[in-house]
Automatic annotation (TrEMBL):
Any single Pfam family the record assigns to this protein: SBDS_N
Name the record gives this protein: Shwachman-Bodian-Diamond protein-like protein
Domain Ribosome maturation protein SDO1/SBDS N-terminal: 17-101
Organism from which the protein derives: Bigelowiella natans (Pedinomonas minutissima)
Length: 227
């Protein structure tokens, strides 16, 4: 069984739990210092700063550690630090109300910045002021773990329907050719991620003309690779 190494945490601050589900009925947990998960994910703190104790648990609240066999079966190794890094990167972190508030404010700011850089006023062609975008965001529900690009697109579409924003996308146009048999699947994927300006079947190929924003290109390529 992996050895437990206890560390100090800030006085008066309750330890937090990060949970990683490997299947419907099996999950693993680590205990971390408050407020450190976000900084770790932003490469601003080390693993040693984050972990309260170098142990992977089946149930952290009851202090039930996972066995070496259980760790190997789930992660392919028994190195607690490597496993903890994976849990920190992919797991669900328990957060305080103040942390959730800060995270939501940061998410809204990032979405507002994205809209400001990638959309323009439909009438003047000028950037939309950040304070105006943030005012629109305050009226809509935003989830902390949402896809930034998709959420920005949803918010803009909703604001346009309600007459809160009149905008146009500042797009770059490209063409992408795929086997014609993927026409339907590709159309659905691309329409979620960018603007499908045209689609033309040319023999065994379908050629898409796509309009995309700066932050959408990676997701377009990833969508095409899934076909």
């Amino acid at each position: 069984m992996p050895k437990q190494q206890k560390k100090k945490h800030s006085a008066g601050a309750s330890p937090k739990i990060v949970r990683f589900k490997v299947s419907k009925n099996k999950s693993f947990e680590i205990m971390v210092n408050p407020g450190t998960v976000a900084t770790f994910r932003q490469d601003r703190s080390s693993l040693s700063d984050v972990l309260l104790v170098e142990t992977v648990f089946k149930n952290a609240r009851k202090a039930v550690p996972a066995t070496s066999d259980e760790l190997f079966e789930a992660f392919g190794c028994t190195d607690v630090r490597k496993i903890a890094e994976r849990i920190l990167s992919k797991g669900d972190a328990q957060t305080s109300s103040s942390e959730r508030k800060k995270g939501m404010e940061a998410k809204k700011r990032n979405i507002a910045d994205f809209i400001n850089k990638n959309y323009a006023d439909a009438r003047t062609g000028l950037p939309i002021p950040l304070n105006r975008i943030l005012s629109v965001l305050e009226k809509q529900r935003v989830t902390a773990d949402c896809d930034l690009v998709l959420e920005a697109r949803r918010i803009v579409d909703e604001a346009k329907k309600k007459g809160e924003l009149s905008v146009k996308r500042k797009e770059t146009v490209m063409t992408l050719s795929l086997p014609a048999k993927f026409k339907r699947e590709a159309s659905v994927l691309f329409e979620r991620r960018c603007s499908v300006l045209s689609r033309t079947v040319n023999g065994s190929q379908v050629v898409f003309e796509l309009g995309y924003l700066a932050g959408e290109l990676d997701s377009i390529i990833a969508s095409a690779e899934k076909l």
